[in-house]
Specification:
The protein has a 3-stranded mixed beta sheet with strand order 2-1-3. It folds into 2 domains: 67 residues, Conserved hypothetical protein from pyrococcus furiosus pfu- 392566-001, ParB domain, CATH 3.90.1530; 179 residues, no CATH class. A hairpin with a 2-residue loop joins strand 1 and strand 2. The protein is globular. The protein contains 13 helices and 3 strands; from the N terminus they run H-H-E-E-H-E-H-H-H-H-H-H-H-H-H-H. 55% of the residues lie in helices and 4% in strands.
Length: 290
């Protein structure tokens, strides 16, 4: 079966760094492609890099079929798989959570046009439906407001990608020179501002953007947001909480991915000791306030 590479699906996947790709290629050359590629019919869902390497070296691979009712369901699955990866940047994590929120928030599941993750439960519902942001916040161990901010960021990144895929990849790889808060401010920006932002990210120089048609969208930021943005204590707390959310989620994924090793004799105590060292280091940062 010849597999189809869906360009939309592929655009939601992070590009492997050269050293990561070489490591994967070496492993497949030595041991074969041991993990089946996930497919929906003949559309590839997971395993794009493995497929590329296997085709390059004429290496056989297996596939695992999975059924979805809609393309949106397939995309949600892809996002969940990617969120389980260990090597994601904080930008990718934020983007995936935001896309998941937008997709699941508007997912329709019955003839009445109700959202299966509706924001408000119906009057005759046996029990109120949990808000999408609250449910995803629990799933990803972050605050609901973080999920909603992620959705704003994802919307802006998607608009930037319509102008430049290169700019999108730079942002998500952490090389875009623009912070999350600055992206949030562009959620209602004009197409002119988005296009100029994308061009500046491509060039690697973020300068103040002037938009005559859209003066209230938070423009005027620079590579270092503190130059053109007056911070308040709420902004500082938001920044700290965002960092903490990402840290907690990465720890959670690591514990989940390596649960078998962790529960081997003696390893659980080592992990606890490592977490205690991290806790001590965090407490030590309080000394910066004195």
């Amino acid at each position: 079966m010849k597999l189809i590479i869906d360009e939309e699906f592929k655009s939601y996947l992070p590009e492997l760094a050269d050293d990561e790709l070489k490591t994967l290629e070496k492993s497949i050359l030595e041991h074969g492609c041991q993990t089946p590629l996930t497919v929906w019919g003949d559309i590839l869902i997971d395993g794009h890099n493995r497929l590329k390497i296997c085709n390059k070296h004429n290496i056989e691979y297996n596939t695992s079929q999975i059924e979805f009712a809609t393309r949106e369901d397939a995309l949600v699955y892809m996002l969940q798989v990617q969120l389980g990866r260990r090597n994601l940047t904080p930008q990718w994590i934020s983007y995936y959570r935001g896309k998941q929120y937008e997709l699941e928030k508007y997912e329709i599941s019955n003839a009445m046009g109700r959202n299966q993750h509706s924001e408000v439960g119906g009057q005759n519902d046996p029990q109120p439906r949990e808000k999408t942001a609250v449910r995803l916040a629990k799933e990803h161990s972050v605050a609901p407001k973080t999920i909603k901010r992620d959705a704003k960021v994802a919307t802006v990144i998607d608009r930037i990608s319509e102008v430049s895929q290169e700019a999108k990849q730079k942002i998500l790889s952490g090389q875009g020179g623009i912070r999350k808060k600055s992206l949030e401010k562009l959620v209602k920006a004009s197409d002119e501002v988005i296009a100029e932002t994308a061009r500046q990210i491509e060039r690697g120089v973020i300068k103040p953007v002037e938009a005559k048609t859209d003066p209230e969208t938070g423009i005027g930021w620079t590579r270092d947001d503190t130059r053109d943005f007056t911070w308040h204590i709420e902004d500082v707390l938001r920044d700290i909480n965002s960092i903490a959310d990402t840290f907690i989620q990465q720890i959670r994924y690591s514990l989940k991915d390596h649960s078998t090793i962790i529960h081997e004799p003696g390893n659980k105590e080592k992990v606890i000791a490592a977490l205690e060292q991290t806790e001590a280091a965090i407490k030590k940062t309080k000394g910066l306030l004195s």
